[in-house]
Design brief:
InterPro entries: Metal_Hydrolase (IPR032466). The chain has 268 residues and is α/β, with parallel strands linked by helices. The chain is built from eleven helices and nine strands. The two termini are 13 Å apart. The relative contact order is 0.14.
């Protein structure tokens, strides 16, 4: 069984997407043997009021019938937008959302912003994970209208070092780090704290090319299947698991990567 911990519905304003609604995602999930997908609404990255996107996702899932059980919705929350606390409550209590995704670069705040720290503490108290992306699209091919985050600008693409301050500020929260495409290096003290944190990373990002080595250094419980669909494809994240050699991952570990780690982390 496969559980995809990194998928979306909605639109990306700078590229055409296919299979970007729940009905189309079900078709793709069936084709590739994915039982369940964690999803959020891409529109929430660009709407001034992210709650409009969360409500869109809720209504789309409600109209899906029994197939809605195959999706685990996450809310997109901007903690610098007025009233986000009420939005979070509505997402969890009314919409049944099981986690939060945040986009500091797109919503223009720092990783150490007090509002983000407050949000992460609230998700911790609700026993909900909060998800961060290294990036959404390849910055080398970004639209000139997209955010300015390529490596040679004052706001470079994220590495784990850039995300780590929020983990350090709230070390007992649950974190998902997705589309890992750049360095995972930390200094010795931070690396020791990171190993103690509750973190789950998906297999969609290019840094996961050497998953076998990462399993040795990070632990087999730290990774789970993820696609970053529909921006990226279904097969890449899957092949990073299935191509592991016997000495890198036995059948038990591969099953943890396919679904076991996600099931445990998300409390399914």
């Amino acid at each position: 069984m496969l559980i995809d911990i990194n998928a979306y519905v909605g639109h990306w304003p700078f590229m055409q997407l296919k299979y970007n609604n729940c009905t189309a995602l079900v078709e793709r999930m069936n084709k590739y043997g994915v039982e369940t997908s964690v999803i959020s609404n891409l529109n929430g990255i660009f709407y001034k009021n992210t709650q409009s996107a969360n409500r869109e996702l809720y209504e789309e899932l409600k109209a899906l019938g029994t197939q809605r059980k195959r999706f685990i919705p996450f809310a997109v929350i901007n903690p610098t937008y007025a009233g986000w606390q009420y939005d979070l409550e509505e997402c969890v209590k009314k919409f049944g959302m099981k986690g939060v995704r945040v986009y500091p670069k797109y919503h223009d705040y720092e990783i150490t912003d007090p509002a983000l720290i407050e949000l992460v503490k609230r998700t911790r108290d609700m026993n909900l994970p909060v998800a961060f992306n290294y990036k959404m699209v390849d910055s080398r091919q970004r639209s000139w209208m997209d955010i300015d985050y390529v490596a040679y600008t004052p706001k470079p693409e994220w590495t784990l070092k850039n995300i780590f301050p929020i983990i350090k500020a709230v070390p007992d929260a649950k974190y998902m780090i997705l589309n890992v495409t750049n360095s995972m290096q930390l200094d010795a003290a931070d690396a020791a704290l990171f190993k103690k944190a509750r973190v789950l990373m998906d297999t969609s990002g290019r840094t996961i090319n050497d998953l076998g080595s990462l399993l040795k250094t990070q632990g087999t419980e730290r990774f789970a299947f993820g696609t970053h669909a529909p921006i990226l494809d279904y097969l890449t994240g899957m092949l990073r698991i299935e191509s592991l050699r016997a000495e890198e991952a036995d059948a038990r570990v591969k099953e943890l990567l396919r679904s076991g780690n996600a099931t445990h982390f998300l409390g399914l």
